[in-house]
Structures
1.
Amino acid sequence: MKIHLCPMRRFAVGRVCWPAALVLLLAMLVSVAAMAPRAAAQSAGSARRPATVKPKSTGEAMVVRPIDPATSFPLLRVQVEGGKRFGPTQVAELAGLTVGAPSNRDTFLAAHQRLVDSGLFETVAYRFEKPSTENGYIVTFEVTETELYYPIRLEEIPASFEEVHAYLRKRDPGFDGNAAATEPGMKRYAAMIEEFLKSRGTEMKVRGLVWAEQGGNLSVMFRPDTPIPSISDVRFEGSEKIEPLELRRILIQTATGILFTEDRFRTVLNNEILPAYWAIGHLGVRFPKVEAVPLEEEKGVRVKVTVEEGEQYTLREARVLAREYREKDLLDLAKLPVGEEALWSKVAEGVKAIQARLKRDGYLNAKVDWEPKLDEPNHEVDLTIVVEEGPQYLFRALKIEGLDLVTEQEVRKLWSMDPGKPFNGLYPDFFLAQIQERQLMDGLGDARSKVELNERSHDATVTLIFKPVDKSPKPRVPLVRPQ
């Protein structure tokens, strides 16, 4: 039996009541038409009103507005991460930033480039942000500073060292007497020196280069941007106490081939020629004129040196300042020529005698310096020798390697230094030399000593290392008869 739910059975087709379906469809269309204007109004309202986020903690609405990085706001502050030599104030000055000035993305990009071009940093990165509670930007620079800093030197610059330093300190907030030994850093300082010279009426191109000083120390030298010639020959004029050829022989090997600047050459003169004159008592020797003459037959220059030997000095007074020794004992040991010609060769021998005494008494790290004070009008000199003994080391133990038990015992009997006594730093090598020279024992062969110092307990352990002579018979090489 079929049951129809449609009240108008004649319009029913199968199980579908078409009149009811039409009524339902019309109702749906009317409902949709009524909702459309409301949805459009809500959509328009949402476009006009900003999105709000309600924090759970306060229940208050926070307005979030996206910021265009090109929009300018005052610079609130500069922060630095990774800086050691340069703080926020110095980095801001290097970058050309001023707190309170209008800034935006382009401002910070240009500041970043200035820091990169300064040559003071290996890497530079930056970020900026605008806090929601403040009307301005905070910029943070992440930097890695270069570690290549050397003292500045000037060569042939028509200004005093102090004047150039003062100008660089004024122009560069990070200047402390040293320069970054990077190409951008040296170019930057060279440009500043050019500006300084131009302000004084001198037009000059300046360049910076890393310079190796005598003794291996490095510096950053600024000099005119002209080629530097090398030294091919050296000649001396005006010397009598020491022949010019002898002075040339002393200096020629050191000077030949080095790049010539007057300051550098005078350093070589002081290191090589001054000791020769001081050894014979001419402590006031001077070199008033140094001239570099270009050579036509070969590349380089010949340096002509004028010598003023001066008078021979007399050693008027000598003193020795030490903590652990009586002054008279050390003066008697040094045998300094007081009241006689101030021959510095004898003074050097006296200082060596004091150094040897300190080492024999266990003062292995002692320092001995001398301070001459010249009285030029009277041609006299006063000498003060300053001794810093340092800690005294004691002998702890003797070790022997490379010998059999019997021979080792014989060597120990000859060893005369007792444990707990001041360690004579000269004794181990002296002991081995005596054994070999006097041939006290056969078959010991080569030997050397090794000293191990304990810096905490200040004691010394000596190891004697022997390499016995190989007495085993060598294999015979068969004779080969000619064909």
2.
Amino acid sequence: MPDREIKGVIVPILTPMNPDETVDKGSLRRLVNYLLDNGVHGIWVSGTTGEFGAMSDQQRLAGMETVVDEVAGRVPIIGNVSGPSTQLSLNLALSVQEMGMDGVAVTPPYYYNHAQDELLDHYRYISDRSGLPLWVYNIPQTVKTAVAPSTVATLAAEGAVVGVKDSSGAGELLAELNVLCEQGGLNLMRFLGTVFRTTSSGALGTHGVIPAIANLVPKVCARGWEAGEAGDAKTVKECNAQLLIANKIVPRQGRRAQRGRLLGHEVGVEVDGNPGKRHRVPPDAGLDRGRERRDPRYPTGIGVGQRPLTADSEPWSSFLRWCSSPAALLPMPSNPPLLCLTHVTLNTLLPLRLQAT
């Protein structure tokens, strides 16, 4: 098991990129501090939200090294070292052995489907040869193969894995895993990739959540999780309302919904104040000035400018009014509706500061 307790809100951090497709380390450092300053309990680096599947090992290692250096032991860090084969995943795990992270995560090998006995061999092999605290990253919608609860429980009983991030959305399978852990006396850290179970994750038998939206609203997520653990129903309701608002700016429909969600997070968390540096790994298009057009169905003037955006500011009040209006229920356009949140700097605006400042 890891040397320290891991629980709460772990943020699957974005990976800012330079025009030459190198990691924008300065922006990444500022994002790390923004998240920690707003109370998150850990960082998940080089994950799906961090676009690991479109990056080289060199890019991923640069991101992990930067995060580890900037965090400097303040919170736990889990590094995703998944690859399309067992050996490729192990190679990356071996590259981070001395980096000082609290664990590494691995999906099933992707592109090809795999049987559960093959997954047992996959995780055992990586665990045995890396010697690192290993997490199962269960996200079948992107890697084709789901890791069955019985497989996770078997690996936990053997000591091959110490944790699981379940992004499958399958509540019954999580319940089955909880029962298996209970009956087997298994000490397995269980986290959900979720938004709307942030405030109730403890009641579902998990130790925390790993929500992409925490890049945008870290304090809301952290505060909501802590309120859920404390049984503070009033704060839970308040944070859930704020999560509903934040979630409305992230497109969830249409052909480019998945990429739109990432773009939405990236535009909202503008970490260097330079719209020209908001780049993504090809072929996925980023938002440049030519594409920063406003849709008339969405509010304008939200967060554009140089004065701080706070919960009681007029732009923010306008955004809150829009979120409760019929216009907010219209279908999302193909481009993210965060187009009104450009020119945002992490140091001056911190968009979506839902919490009062």
3.
Amino acid sequence: MQSRSGSPSAWLGDLSVVLTPPRSEEVGDEDRAALAGLRGRPVAQVRGWIARRREAEARRAALIWKAAFVVIGLLGALAGAGATSAVLRFDAQAPVNVFHVLGVLVAPQVAFFLLWVVWMLAPVRESRAWRSLAEAWNWLHPGVWMMTLVRRLGRKSVARAWDAVREHAAAWRILTATQRWAVGLGGQTFALGFALASLLTLLVRVAGQDLYFGWSTTLDVGPESVRRMTGLIAAPWAWRVPTAAPGADLIEATRYYRLEGMVRADPAVWGRWWPFLAWCLGVYAVLPRLVSWVVTRHRLAASAAKALALLPGAVEVVERLNPPHLDTRVADAEPTPGDGEGSVPAELSGGGSVSAVVAWGGLSLAPDALRQAVGAGEAAEVRTAGAGGPWREDEATARTVAALADGGTVRIAVKAWEPPLGEFEDFLRAMRKAMGRAGRIEVVLGPWPEAGLPVAATEEDIRVWSGFLARLGLDGLAWGLRPDGGAT
């Protein structure tokens, strides 16, 4: 079995395809055997099942997510290169102002990184005030742009699957947490691309152009104040790269006034600012963004793994890969039908009292044929269940049938030669709970030649079913063979 990638796009791709519940034919004995070694590890089982059954869909979804991350990163790089080129524009009339470089390329990166640190605190992230602020500025967030791109690229697959979950409040809450981390990673990818492109553009411009740097401000700031400020900024690397920490002589020599021009210093002096600026971009822009990108990437993977274990579609996969094992053998001491305390009556009530009929386990009969086969009147409602679909559908059927019964009798037609499994027990208990103490549930065993299933119940089949029903201990539960014997 092919191992699954741990990249964010792979996790999101798997999440996108498992939002659609598995069809009955998608989880079979071969899957259970192949994934038996992963029992107890639901996420690994789900990803293993995806690799077996929905690999092509998962790859397409992952490719859409990967393309969106790449595009948003490239947009960030273009924005960073453009902003840096604009700041480094030099026309020989005045040098590139160091304050402009720090104010446009470095300070915003530091500010946004601090905002990200605050956002990482769960109480803040989940607060109503923060959510309101985030919603107000959604249109400015690169991660939101990325999600829009994902919806456009995957409108027939990813977007449709995610939108379908909105109807289920619990599932949508689980998915929303992962979506927030995906949006966050999109924003960090944009910011990292911006920072890397800014540093690379600075180095390329320095290497290919004779740039002059200086400082100037309208504020009453003297060289000594600038020296203290740059000394504080350069503290992380000054001990290792002293040339990247501007000294008092450089600061004094490169102060300029636009009206005076650049005539007070040796031309070579004006270029000595670039190591300081490059280190500023590396330490205060690239490094924090790299850290935030790695952490957000890890948190997205953790959130996707959690969602993959909790979303209804994934839960159904795990439940069907690990069906409950019921011991259908009946001990010699087991009371036989109708004998002693705790047994289940082997007697069907009169057909006129039957309000609803359920065809269980893929039994396919026309409604009129099914009513006649189980001895129900024409007024009895007919439903199907246990055909391998999602449990929530069977549970809804149980509630519907209980409401239709309205204190009457429900007959469930089963294939006698197939031993009862956990799904049938769950169905009976759900129906008994929905019906309350009123009403009667009768299980009808028999051949069903009308559906091409003429196999009659053997004595062993009867022992298995009667013992199973007796162990359930449900009130108002009975069983019986098909009234007309199934003769054709």
4.
Amino acid sequence: MWGHVRRSTIRGALRLGIVTTAVVTALAAGLGTLLIFRSVAIHQTETFLGHEATVASAIATRAGRFFFGPHGAHTFGPRRLVALTPTGGLAGDVPQALSHLTLSLRALTPGHISYIVRGDDVWALDPVLLSNHDAVGTYAVLVHRSLPSALDPALYVVAFTLLAALVAVLVADAYTRRVAASVERFASLAKRVSEGELTVTVPERPLPHAELDDLRRALSEMVASLRDARERQRSFLFAISHDLRTPLTSIRGFAEAIEDGAVDDPRRAGAVIQREAQRIERLLADLMDLSRLEADGFDVHLGAVALAPLLEHLAETVRIRGRARGLTCTVRVGEDASEVVGDPQRLAQALLNLVDNAIKFARHRVELDAHRADGVVVLEVRDDGPGVAPELLEDLGRRQVTPRPGLDEAIGSGLGLLIVSRLIESMGGRLRVRSPIGTGGGTAVVLELTASARRLASRPGSTLPTST
């Protein structure tokens, strides 16, 4: 699907961006150079013409009659001395560009130099008083100079800017080629992973750029996580198929024996079939619960849950179900741990699952204990059974484990602690398992729950009465 649509690339976008920036920069630099050069040229020209006009005015003032003689025009120039009209206009042989010029009254004052810029031409005009045949008139010394061309410097600046931009484009292109190659390599690996190929090898060598190295590490962690998930899925399916096959084999064997008339005690065979059917039913129920939990299909309504009555009810369940084996159950609830934040039904479901496990493996007693520690309520379900093998502790609550028959010969699905862990996490808590807890073994399943803001005020360490 990726190869059918032509899309812009990072490398192409960077190229376009750099070239566009270079062209705009070159044009802006050229225009700026043109304006600056013209401004400087006008200033320098005005300074030069002002000096020339001052000198010419001084000469004209001292030798005014000379300029009206036959040699004046040749010596001073035909357009260097013009008459000023009372209204501020210019009379006589006036340049075409200044024919419609009108000076202000201030500009008619001798010694006040006016500058006129028309395109690339600059004039300086300095009024003087001259007498001609005993008549005094106001004239103006007019000097002119053309501005030098500002185009050449601007073109040089544009050319050098574009050359520098070309070098920048080549350097950036080489750099982006390396970056794009890394991104394309990771994209190819991600595409193969999305197609189910989890045997891909992500480079382990760190990359020099932090962003690309973060991408490499994220891809590596994703592949490792998917591999682990696939392995857990395979193990889970294998375990489920084994757990289903065992009771089905037993049911099928007794059913065939009954059909062949080879069963001496039909009541016993029926009891075995019923027990194995219940085992399958429990397994399917656990699978449904786990499926809903994994799909966030459980509704959790958080509120304050009182622990004392809940634990007393569970303790009574232990005593009734464990009466034949002589099991006892004790309950301890600290007054500062009397209420937790949770869903009453889900918390009861999780604790009942833990109590079921404790009943299966306990030799003599089950203990339910709730107390405050490190700002949370710690709820422990302990039994004095054989304990859990060290190599299984890490998997408890994280994945399905191979079910073991309890002391009451009951066999679960191996999903109980996984379901409890998901339920507790949905209520903002955490589950962990300790084993052994004594010299003879024993297991403690520890739940860390958020204390309710409505908990009873009490002295630290005080407890409710112990029941047995």
